[in-house]
Specification:
Order of helices and strands: EHEHEEEHHHHHHEEEEEEEHHH
Number of helices: 11
CATH class of the largest domain: Alpha Beta
Structural class: alpha+beta
Number of strands: 12
Strand content: 15-25%
Radius of gyration: 19 Å
CATH architecture of the largest domain: 2-Layer Sandwich
Helix content: 25-40%
Shape: globular
Oligomer: single chain
Distance between the termini: 54 Å
């Protein structure tokens, strides 16, 4: 258990505390996952820097794309009319997180940094080609969300010296595209996903062919997983249901889930990948107005 608790009101204050403790303090944002890890003894630190009171990091705005502050809650995301209109996959995913109480407290930044392979907000954000802004006492840097994760699990962010402050992306609707999110869990609330997936489709200039496609799945690897073979199959081809079936089959073959007592066998979840990816592709296509 930590010995000191800080609740700064400004980003500069939080960074100053982290610098003072030189790696012995840790950022807390919402704490819905961190407290569980702490109680299990998986992590330890001397001081907690609770950044949830930093109001400057809670927003959803449209400015050269969509910008989301890292302390924006899942409830904020789910209820955002802007996201409902321009990135429904993210709004839908946020509405599936935990319970109402967890959605009211849990933050999009915490969901990303916790680095769970099926994190409901991170999956669609990766499909949206989002970029994360990370700030430390020495300055700021931007990292593509996909590059934020270590292949073996976890992120490259140092929670003892760095703070994720913002996530930005260009909404698919601005390019005539569509997005969708699909999920299956054991029950409708308070349940981790057995499988989830997010899809983004972008049309070519003729509106008949697929210029770009992104498919992200979880938990089928140690981190949110890009189905690149399936994406490549879609690119350059005409929108049609047979193509979507082939892409979903390919995504299923790419998925490498482990057998799990909680989530089911590998074979079962590969079949789920086939079904949910196909349905998500159809939904994203319809989101384009097709």
């Amino acid at each position: 258990m930590f010995h000191k608790y800080y609740r700064p009101k400004h980003l500069a204050e939080a960074l100053a505390v982290l610098s003072e403790y030189e790696g012995r303090a840790r950022v807390m944002a919402g704490g819905t996952d961190l407290i569980v890890q702490l109680n299990k003894g998986d992590i330890s630190f001397e001081a907690a820097v609770d950044i949830t009171n930093i109001k400057e990091l809670r927003y959803i705005i449209e400015e050269d794309g969509i910008k989301i502050g890292a302390l924006t809650t899942h409830t904020d995301l789910a209820q955002s009319s802007l996201l409902r209109q321009k990135a429904p996959s993210l709004a839908d995913a946020a509405g599936e997180v935990g319970s109402l109480q967890i959605r009211n407290v849990g933050t999009v930044g915490g969901n990303i940094v916790n680095a769970q392979p099926a994190a409901d907000a991170a999956i669609p954000l990766m499909a949206l080609d989002a970029v994360a802004t990370i700030v430390s006492a020495s300055g700021a840097r931007q990292v593509a969300l996909e590059m934020l994760y270590h292949p073996g699990g976890g992120t490259i962010l140092d929670p003892c010296s760095e703070i994720l402050t913002e996530i930005t992306f260009r909404p698919p609707s601005d390019m005539g595209g569509g997005s969708a999110f699909g999920r299956l869990s054991k029950r409708k609330a308070l349940s981790l996903p057995v499988f989830n997936a997010a899809v983004v489709l972008l049309p070519a200039a003729d509106d008949k062919n697929i210029m770009d496609a992104r498919i992200v799945m979880g938990p089928v690897a140690r981190i949110p997983f890009r189905a690149r073979e399936a994406e490549n199959l879609l690119r350059g081809n005409a929108f049609n249901e047979d193509l979507f079936h082939d892409a979903a089959d390919t995504a299923s073959r790419e998925a490498k889930p482990r057998d799990s007592l909680f989530r089911g066998s590998s074979a079962y979840r590969k079949k789920l990948a086939q079904v949910i990816v196909y349905r998500s592709l159809i939904k994203a296509w319809k989101d384009m107005g097709c």
